[in-house]
Amino acid sequence: MPTELEDLVEFLHHGNSQIRQVAVETLLPYSKTEPAIFKANQLSPVKDLKLLVKDYAPIAKNVLTTLINISGDRDVLGLVANDNAFLESLLLRITNVKEPNANEIAMLLANMAKSDSIERLLTLKRDVPLGLSASKIAIDQLMDCYVKGAEGSWNPKADFDYLAYLFADLAKFPSGASYLTTIQPYDSVHPLSKLLPFTTPPSSLPRRLGAATVLKNVSFSVSSHPTLLSPPLSILPYILLPLASGADSYSESETDQMLEELQYLEPDKKREPNTSILVTHLETLLLLTTTRGERERLREAGCYFVVRELHLAVENEGVREGCDRLVQVLMRDEEGEEHTGQSKGAPVSALVTERDGGSERGMMVTQADSEDEDEQIVEIF
């Protein structure tokens, strides 16, 4: 480890703000290339960085970015995620309408969600931020930031997009899935319903990927399926629409069988371009075929037709494998059903041959296609 860097780290707690600023700016690139320097002296530099989040805005911005970049380390993650005072400091700032670094705080919270300790956001009570939320619960306040951020109606300097990844990780906990699918008393709304509008463009990639992952994670709970598939949530259109394109070809009888939201799409309606999101939605649909009643519901909604067109249009191995698995379930004969002799059980690759003649057709936020969205760490510079 270069001695110069060891010396420079010591200036993070210097009394002169100009020296602190130079130290933070100089060290920032090394948060990606030499992250070990921040673990010296039993993580003393990380402790300094946590305090500097409260510093002047330019210093705090670089500090937050540094913490984002090094929070993939388990020791660093534990130190920041388990600190109640530090968490409150972040919450105080991200809910402040004038906070200039709210997006960086959202990214850091998303990374902190890789620690199970962040589950406490679901029950953590704090002062109500006037004008933002009527709830004392931290997660409600963050959800309200997220919703208002999409319209720019809270903090004009923040869109809060990366909170989507925080919600996705919280949805992995049974308590998180329950929160998202339960009407909250402060606004009489299911929190999940606030995420559903962000499953399609023009919503940003973090919002679309986050919403898709939330839907997948809450669908692991079979007991929640009736709630998910029924009004007022009715999540099927929000899963199928990203899979569909206005250029897809359906017969009139197929169109009549499909959900109303998917009938006669505008010709310029584009399919979700991110293959990781497509795969995630296919996995969610597969989770929603656990019972015979659910399988029948997906069949009646024309799910197979959408998946067929997706398989024809997208040349991606993961997407096509996901289509195959789902069709194997949707097209198979149910127990007690007389075999029809038709194409139930045939893989999509065989079924679509009749249509195309057998021809083949953050979190590093810039690498969503190549990384597991459930384990991404946001890293920026």
Question: Would you write up a description of this structure?
Answer:
With 381 residues, the protein is mainly alpha-helical. Helices cover 53% and strands 0% of the residues. The chain has helices at residues 3-9, 17-27, 30-33, 40-52, 57-70, 74-81, 84-94, 102-112, 138-151, 163-170, 174-180, 191-195, 205-218, 225-229, 236-243, 252-257, 275-287, 292-300, 303-313, 317-330, 348-351, 353-356. Helix 4 (40-52) packs across helix 5, helix 4 crosses helix 6 and helix 19 runs antiparallel to helix 20 (317-330). The longest helix is centred in the N-terminal third of the chain and has 14 residues, at 57-70. It is elongated, with a radius of gyration of 24 Å. 41% of the residues are buried.
A few lines on this structure:
By secondary structure, the protein is mainly alpha-helical. It has helices at residues 3-9, 17-27, 30-33, 40-52, 57-70, 74-81, 84-94, 102-112, 138-151, 163-170, 174-180, 191-195, 205-218, 225-229, 236-243, 252-257, 275-287, 292-300, 303-313, 317-330, 348-351, 353-356.
